[in-house]
Amino acid sequence: MKNKRPANGEPTIRDLLSYQIGAVAGAMSRGASLRYRDLGANLGEWRAIALLGACETANLVELARRAGLDKAQVSRVVSALLKRGLVKRAENLSYGRTMPLQLTSEGRKLYQALMSAALERDRAFRSCLSDDELTMFRSALHKLEIVARALAQTSQQA
Questions:
Q1: Per DSSP, which regions of the chain are E strands?
Q2: How many Cβ atoms from other residues are within 10 Å of residue 154's Cβ?
Q3: Chain mean pLDDT for the chain
Q4: Model-wide pTM > 0.85
Q5: Is-contact 57 100, C-beta < 8 A?
Q6: Which tens digit of pLDDT belongs to each residue from 36-74?
Q7: Cα dihedral sign for 122, 124, 127, 128?
Q8: CATH number for the 13-126 domain, one of 1.10.1040.10, 1.10.10.10, 1.10.760.10, 3.30.1330.30?
């Protein structure tokens, strides 16, 4: 599909920064999905496993917040991981519904395999950027995140 500019010269969706970032993120996610599927996890499972691997324990609400997903999505992912024996609930029953989750030994093995694949992919992405470009890219992403969160907050209040 060619990006034809309208006769009046008006920008198209492909000119929008949010569209361009989304397209790159989508391409990265599709590639990750294929790679992680080969290791036995979908993207939602990868996120939950990676977050639990990084922080040792987290409850459902914390996982959802950290993953940037809604609680219902994370709940479905966690249920699947519990059934597969990759995640377990903490032993202390006093937590109630906010019971912390943690990786099992099998979950930890999968975490290590997934992280190895993720780091390999990350090296490939970084290889096309110089150190200066990577620094500028991170700075730009940080600024865009601040604006995106502010716009979302403003929209939520409207």
A1: 87-89, 101-103
A2: 9
A3: 90
A4: no
A5: yes
A6: 999 999 999 999 999 999 988 899 999 999 988 889 999
A7: negative
A8: 1.10.10.10
